[in-house]
Design a protein that fits this description.
mainly beta, 8 strands, 0% helix, Uncharacterised_Atu4866, Protein Atu4866, Atu4866-like_sf
């Protein structure tokens, strides 16, 4: 699997409710509100496209454009 180091890190919605932590070795941990680790799984980055597969088998995808992650109707910004 390709790992794009520029995308590794915490991605957060403007209100801070959804938080995607893209971890090294193509794993992610998603928090929602006060629920830490609401979803966990793997991801694969191909160019500017990301495919997610959580540990239950659910899949989703997104696109990185101009430093912003667009995923399932959400807009996430990389936390510094």
């Amino acid at each position: 699997m390709q790992e794009s180091k520029e995308y590794i890190g915490m991605w957060v919605t403007a209100d801070g409710y959804i938080r995607h932590n893209l971890l090294p070795e193509n794993r992610y941990d998603e928090a929602r509100g006060k629920h830490e680790s609401a979803y966990q799984g793997s991801y694969k980055v191909t160019g500017d496209h990301i495919d997610y597969k959580d540990d239950t088998g659910f899949t989703a995808d997104g696109e990185f454009r101009d430093g912003i992650l667009y995923h399932a109707g959400m807009v996430l910004y990389k936390q510094k």
